[in-house]
Specification:
Elements: E1 16-19, E2 26-29, H1 32-43, E3 50-57, E4 62-70, H2 78-96, E5 102-108, H3 117-137, E6 142-149, E7 152-155, E8 169-170, H4 178-186, H5 194-199, H6 206-228, H7 230-253, H8 261-269, H9 272-281, H10 285-291, H11 297-312, H12 323-335, H13 339-352, H14 357-367, H15 373-386
Length: 420
Amino acid sequence: MTNNHESRTPSDRPSTSTAGSTTDPRITLRSPAELADALPYMLGFHPTDSLVMVAVHGEGGRFGGRLRVGIPATPAEWEDTARQVADCLIRGSERREGKPDGIVVFLCQEPLGGESGQRVMTRLRPLAQRIRLACGALDVPVLEALCLSAGRFWSYVCPDERCCPAEGSRLAAVGTSVMAAAATFAGLQVRGSLKEIEGRLAPLGGAVAAEMEGALDRAAAALVPKILDGATREEVGAETLELARSLMRRMALAPPVEGTQADDRDDALLGHDEAAALILGLQDREIRDIAAEWMEDEEAGPALRLWRALARRCVGAYGEHAAAPLTLAGWVSWSTGDEPTARIALGLALRADSDYRFAQLLHHACNEGIDPEGLRECLREERRSREPRRGRRPAGSRPPGRRGKPAPSREPRRTAGSGQ
């Protein structure tokens, strides 16, 4: 990484360190190649179609706050995006750790159509330049800016052909670099690519989606009158929770399956009508809050699988309903130590409904590095306080149904961004 634009030979590059495990070993990075290898370990996943910025602090170049957003599709958006991300990372770093001494930028995008990786690098160069200018305007230099595409990387900062040739340098094969070995020793994990993680939460398609939307229509037509009737509203809440517990038990008893087949198996365990009833029931804030209590021990695994499966069933006109199961999936992931997946799930929840307050709060807390134990203890206390009076059933907060026909809500509404 070039820390001084006038010193560009590989031997002149200062080291940059990132913290590892709880014993805080340091992984030292001394070149663009090592920075490129380190990116998935810094984020916890391989970013796809992403602009990533990392704050650097101190003489030793300690990594601080990180920011990831999707690369805007049109160059007309690049100027505003550059200003916004620079301001967001630098101001956020000032609140937590002090103003950064520098920033490292990564532009990650695979070739589109018939273009080459080198063409991607050339096409994105103006975006890299705008980011450098935006950071410079805030008195923070961009120490290195890398483009990662088609298995290669290029530096927008270093012109030295010995380390940064014009045709790019090949990225190390996954898991084979010195960085991979050091990161594994330090306890850093890579949980696949951003595309893969998002794919596990994306709506189903094809004929299954049409069948599922029909089930949601039927469930909404049957459920809304019950919710509006005060005499049956509490019964609906109790039925929703019992259904969720039953489906979690079903998943816990299913034989384990690895890889992508695990999601297919979980999808097969849920009937359309069951999934529809539970998706609509979770639109009730109090029901959702009780479901959030299943975030640790033997409940966490089946709950996470259930919330992912429900998010995939929020299809068609019911896309906004995914905010509830996505938020629950993000919460369980965060509670069990998987922060990268939590940020992705919570970002998707805000993409589904930018006003969803629970997702807003969790997304902010996770990004700020707040310990989730405080919320876990609050939920434990809520659960304990409810146990002596099990006869009391939770009341709903808003009738579910198609979002095109809004119902009253007691949940605070506020617009917020949904970046990860």
